[in-house]
Design goal:
Length: 82
């Protein structure tokens, strides 16, 4: 999964298989997301997830992202500043 936000910064991550399903990805994303919001103050953030990556999909949905587009190979999610 990649996150994009205003001014084209990116966050990407990969979790070693032995640590998957233990909440590390979710905690990493929440922490990185909060720091990015605090530092850059974007009005929106985009997340791109491979269509078959259900684990990353669950993570972005838990971080209050909404589906923006559902393409064959990837899904695009957006988070707007409240």
């Amino acid at each position: 999964m990649l996150l994009y936000y205003y001014k084209s910064h990116q966050i990407g991550y990969w979790t070693n298989p032995e640590y998957r399903g233990k909440g590390f990805g979710r905690e990493f994303l929440k922490t990185a997301f909060k720091q990015a919001i605090h530092k850059y103050d974007p009005s929106y953030v985009l997340a791109r997830v491979n269509a078959d990556n259900t684990a990353s999909e669950k993570i972005v949905l838990a971080c209050k992202f909404k589906v923006m587009s559902n393409l064959t190979l990837q899904k695009l999610y957006v988070w707007y500043r409240p």
